[in-house]
Design brief:
With 147 residues, this protein is mainly β. 0% of the residues lie in helices and 49% in strands. A hairpin with a 2-residue loop joins strand 1 and strand 2.
Length: 147
């Protein structure tokens, strides 16, 4: 679920049936190429959310490790709940560096994926999906993911 307020979007991600990393990408037709990502991992029993960029079908890189990149996560919290995870994160609607995609009033291609490890690892084809989402109207349409 999400809420748009002023210049930010607050996203609430829930995962059932296990714990491990979970990621959400914005603006990439295949979910990975030139994708702005928010990824929650578990570090020392604490859930951490960071801002990533992916150039291709390879592991993404934290924005802060890239020239001119910054972590655009304004707030996050997370907890393990009933054998699953709940993560809340706030980020700006407008990108803050060249590795961020703007979240517009129109349709935005998103993808989500998850893994069963605390640290980020490659996901399988059954652990990802893609959607065309309009964050203003609330519509979300499943789309075919080419990866």
């Amino acid at each position: 679920s999400w809420t748009v307020t002023n210049d930010n979007i607050a996203l609430s991600l829930s995962r059932t049936g296990g714990i491990g990393w979970v990621g959400l990408s914005f603006g990439s037709l295949d979910g990975m190429t030139n994708a702005d990502m928010l990824i929650a991992t578990i570090d020392n029993d604490a859930i951490v959310v960071d801002d990533y960029w992916s150039v291709s079908m390879s592991p993404p890189t934290m924005d802060i490790a890239l020239v001119g990149g910054k972590n655009s996560v304004k707030y996050f919290s997370g907890m393990v709940v009933d054998g699953g995870m709940k993560v809340d994160v706030i980020r700006p609607l407008k990108g803050e560096d060249v590795y961020d995609r703007d979240i517009t009033d129109g349709d935005v291609q998103i993808a989500y994926a998850f893994g069963y490890t605390n640290a980020l690892t490659k996901h399988t084809s059954s652990n990802r999906r893609s959607l065309l989402v309009n964050f203003k109207t609330g519509t979300a349409i499943p789309t075919e993911s080419p990866y």
